[in-house]
Amino acid sequence: MSIEALTLLFFGSLLFFLLLGLPLAFVLGGVSVVFLYFTWGFDSFYMVASQIWGTMESFTLVAIPLFVFMAMILERTGVARDLYRMMHLWCGGLRGGLALGTLGICAVFAAMVGISGAAVVAMGTIALPSMLERGYDKSMALGVINTGGGWGILIPPSILMILYALITGVSVGKMFAAGIMPGVLLMVLTAIYIIVRCHLQPELAPALPKEDRGTWPEKFRALRAVLLPIGVVVMVLGSIIGGITTPTEAAAMGVLGALISAAVYRQFKWSILKEAAIRTFKLTGMIMWILFAAHAFSAAYQSMGAQELIEGLMNMVPGGPWGIIIAMMVIVFLLAMVLDPVGIMLITLPVFMPIVESLGFDPIWFGILFVINMEIGYMTPPFGFNLFYLKGIVPPSITMKDIYKSIIPFVIVEIIGIILIMIFPEIATWLPDLFF
């Protein structure tokens, strides 16, 4: 069978079983094992086992359950409630102030937990009712929570960045450092959009009346709410960037910070620890199976010689190296609408990374573009996770159509951010070059 027909059959089988609704890990691993057997025979399984063993020996892998456990604890501490109260007092007097404050809280949460859903659920529960009650346009309120919640996978620490590093072989520390400036850029761009839009259409997000803005003593007392989150961020990111710890050791520091936060907020209970541990075990188990499947997929993909075929097809894309990068971004953007981010990483990175490196592009810079596309995938229909997190907590009067419509301008802002990072790669590469 020709390589073209074999490649078509391979990817066609993956798509067919995914559309049937079977779990990604078993589809990816199962199809890959079948193709390995019929192309290379039984001996090919030793190659897969050898690759998996090498990954399981990676010290970096330990960071995943630690960061997940940290996120599960912080979700239940009450940090988000106090942060929102502080933002409410300091920003409420501005047009769109509550929306800007919500963005800031989402960024702080992103720098603590490393996953997307935590900020969406917290702000959807706390900030959304407050904004709607004070006359905010529902599209503005929903869009802010949706886009800010997605920053959890871009602003370090990020579980997806760790997986990207494991799959591609780049440094986790460099990926974390590279995510800081793009995260700030997206936050600034989104804030500018809110300020300009609210200036042109004040009715979308009115300023709070004076009696709701709080006194100066109340505002200064509320600043205490940021001390613990800043402490956790410094413990994690500060220790990595300062060269004190590895990312894995920093994850352990983050767990310690989360436990201290739980104790300060009087939420340090056996029931919370038990629930967080069980959820961590479940999520970590799923990630491990997906990593096993990734190695089987990579081995099958390479054994068929499909890499040379894909590289040949990519070289036919007009526009030279930049045309190829843009084509990759479009492919990832479209896939992010229908597949989960981990699945997209496993399917595309073994295909894309050799091409990216052969073209002379920085894999760290490409990784940031890739992660931002995954972030957009969290907020775009039909299967964006943040959309369903929001639908589960919004009032019955808000429909799925309302949520879908709310994300359009914010997706455009994120795409502008990607374009700026492509034009000015230093936004992503400056900090890694500086610290590493």
UniProtKB/TrEMBL annotation:
The UniProt keywords, alphabetically, are:
Cell inner membrane, Cell membrane, Membrane, Transmembrane, Transmembrane helix, Transport
Localization: Cell inner membrane
Stretches that traverse the bilayer: 6-38, 59-79, 99-128, 140-167, 179-200, 221-244, 250-268, 280-302, 322-352, 364-383, 403-424
User: Which InterPro entries does this entry report, sorted A to Z?
Assistant: DctM, TRAP_DctM
Q: Which Pfam families match?
A: DctM (PF06808)
Q: How does the protein's chain sit in the membrane according to the entry?
A: Multi-pass membrane protein
GO CC, alphabetical: plasma membrane
- Please indicate if the UniProt record lists Lyase as a keyword: no
**GO MF annotation, one:** transmembrane transporter activity
Pinpoint the TRAP C4-dicarboxylate transport system permease DctM subunit domain residues. 11-427
Known role = Part of the tripartite ATP-independent periplasmic (TRAP) transport system.
Which family is it part of?
Belongs to the TRAP transporter large permease family.
Indicate the quaternary assembly. The complex comprises the extracytoplasmic solute receptor protein and the two transmembrane proteins.
For this entry, the protein name equals: TRAP transporter large permease protein
Upper classification of the organism? Bacteria, Pseudomonadati, Pseudomonadota, Gammaproteobacteria, Pseudomonadales
